[in-house]
């Protein structure tokens, strides 16, 4: 086996890994990145964030052309779905983006090794390619950025034909007549939206008594109402206990979460969307004494170092939301820390977005968080039905909610349902990062007419002085 030496080896090239590798190289380190896949970018770019957004956008355009343009005076009769072309443009998006990372690696002199990386000791990474002999490389420091993989339910096998993961749901050969989604979280609702727009009946089965657990309850309830209005069949407080597949579909046995009479639902395709789990098995971490928690996440300190001082971890393999932008920020901070700089991530200000239509976004505390902590707060809410741009665009579903400290007016959380919520949450994240008050937002001039004016109005409502409501 040949050996090469590096200041830093990053295992995994997802949003956390490739960003960490590039920043470390920018900091003057000799860097290598090991990726088991044939292309760079990890789950996010290959079978996650980016292909799903390509399909979400394309399906939204199709749905708009077929069902909503007439009310705007645009005659779009005869609209047809070309699923093959829709998938082709999705695949091209992925190819362009993963190729872009390869370019950035070359530009920043990051060495790329293809193969499964694992630790032989705290300074040695073994790389096993799909074909050919394994080799080892030496590293002064190692970052584990291996991301996460699909979680499943006991006894239900994913075959990526009838029972599919998010990966299979991104490449279905035809629109299913009935798609049953197991799990009412972000992934299930986004992919359910894609196939609903393209003509499928969509049933969502969620074990809890609400959708999108962890988000503000008022937002979740309003979001569920909007999805039902769009035609989703949502079964909360329900569990899937059995899935029997045939050559043409599945029989899904569903019963109340607390027990009771079961029903059997026939579906063409079943999407397993019950979450993800950290990808840490087979990396050789246990034999080195790297401390893990009970669900397989690596325990890290503030600089992202593990219990083995030169081994670091970021992204989905450590505590916190499994979000690409969280991993990216951790990658930058971790690479800076290794280079002796002051890397930091404020984990209290990590926005979350669901890219349905309307979108749902949030940053900071929910009302439930504040109540549990015993924090006195004000809530200011402004509906998009009262926003001039939203009315002009015929996109009035949803609202903005701003939560503030009752005594100081400091913004503690912002929650949005709206057609451009994913972009609007950036203003809220910046406000939280700088410790802004609702009055600070209210005194900041917002362009008219824009949907962002709803953020300003919600901030004014938090201290009782909205103008347009």
Topology:
Layout: E1 5-11, H1 15-26, E2 31-35, H2 42-47, H3 49-67, H4 83-107, E3 111-114, E4 116-121, E5 124-128, E6 135-144, E7 148-150, E8 163-164, H5 166-169, E9 178-182, H6 186-197, E10 201-205, H7 217-229, E11 233-235, E12 238-245, E13 250-256, E14 263-267, E15 269-272, E16 276-278, E17 311-313, H8 324-338, E18 352-354, E19 359-364, H9 367-373, E20 377-383, H10 388-392, E21 399-405, E22 411-418, H11 421-433, H12 438-442, H13 453-462
Parallel strand pairs: 1-2, 1-6, 2-3, 6-17, 8-15, 9-10, 9-15, 10-11
Antiparallel strand pairs: 4-5, 5-6, 7-16, 12-13, 13-14, 18-19, 19-22, 20-21, 21-22
Helix pairs in contact: 1-8, 3-4, 3-6
Q: What's the helical proportion of residues? A: 25-40%
Distance between the termini: 71 Å
Structural class: alpha/beta
Number of strands: 22
CATH class (first level) name of the largest domain: Alpha Beta
Q: Taking all residues together, what is the mean pLDDT?
A: 97
Low-confidence stretches: none
Morphology: globular
CATH architecture of the largest domain: 3-Layer(bba) Sandwich
> Mind summarizing the main beta sheet?
7 strands, mixed
The CATH topology of the largest domain is FAD/NAD(P)-binding domain
Computed Rg: 24 Å
Query: What's the total helix number?
Result: 13
Determine the strand fraction and express it as a percent band: 15-25%
In CATH terms, the superfamily of the largest domain is FAD/NAD(P)-binding domain
Task: Give the tally of structural domains.
Answer: 3
């Amino acid at each position: 086996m040949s050996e090469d030496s590096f200041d830093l080896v990053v295992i995994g090239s997802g949003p956390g890994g490739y960003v960490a590798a590039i920043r470390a190289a920018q900091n003057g380190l000799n860097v290598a990145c090991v990726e088991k896949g044939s292309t760079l970018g990890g789950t996010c770019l290959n079978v996650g964030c980016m292909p799903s957004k390509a399909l979400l956008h394309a399906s939204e355009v199709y749905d708009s052309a077929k069902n909503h343009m007439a009310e705007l005076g645009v005659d779009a009769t005869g609209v047809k779905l070309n699923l093959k072309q829709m998938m082709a443009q999705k695949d091209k998006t992925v190819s362009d983006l993963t190729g872009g990372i390869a370019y950035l690696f070359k530009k920043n002199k990051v060495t790329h090794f293809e193969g499964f990386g694992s630790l032989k000791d705290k300074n040695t990474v073994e790389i096993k390619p799909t074909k050919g002999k394994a080799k080892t490389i030496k590293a002064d420091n190692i970052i584990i950025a291996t991301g996460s993989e699909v979680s499943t339910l006991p006894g239900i096998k994913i075959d990526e034909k009838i029972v599919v993961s998010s990966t299979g749901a991104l490449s279905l050969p035809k629109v299913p007549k009935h798609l049953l989604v197991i799990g009412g979280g972000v992934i299930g609702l986004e992919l359910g939206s894609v196939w609903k727009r393209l003509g499928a009946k969509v049933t969502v089965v969620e074990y809890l008594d609400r959708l999108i657990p962890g988000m503000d309850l008022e937002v979740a309830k309003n979001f569920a109402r909007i999805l039902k209005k769009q035609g989703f069949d949502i079964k909360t407080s329900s569990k899937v206990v059995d899935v029997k597949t045939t050559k043409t579909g599945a029989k899904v046995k569903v019963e109340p979460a607390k027990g009771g009479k079961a029903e059997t639902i026939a579906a063409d395709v079943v999407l397993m969307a019950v979450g993800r789990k950290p990808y840490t098995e087979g990396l050789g971490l246990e034999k080195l004494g790297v401390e893990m928690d009970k669900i397989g996440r690596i325990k890290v300190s503030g600089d992202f170092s593990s219990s083995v001082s030169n081994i670091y971890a970021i992204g989905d393999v450590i505590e916190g939301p499994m979000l690409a932008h969280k991993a990216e920020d951790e990658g930058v901070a971790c690479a800076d820390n290794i280079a002796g700089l002051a890397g930091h991530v404020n984990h209290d200000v990590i926005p979350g977005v669901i890219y349905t239509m309307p979108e749902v976004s949030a940053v900071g505390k929910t009302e439930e968080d504040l109540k549990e902590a015993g924090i006195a707060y004000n809530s200011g809410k402004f509906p998009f039905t009262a926003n001039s741009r939203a009315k002009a665009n015929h996109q009035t579903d949803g609202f903005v909610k701003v939560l503030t400290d009752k005594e100081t007016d400091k913004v503690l959380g912002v929650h949005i349902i709206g057609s451009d919520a994913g972009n609007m949450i950036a203003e809220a994240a910046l406000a939280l990062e700088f410790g802004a008050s609702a009055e600070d937002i209210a005194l900041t001039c917002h362009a008219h007419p824009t949907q962002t004016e709803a953020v300003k109005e919600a901030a004014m409502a938090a201290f009782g002085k909205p103008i347009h409501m």
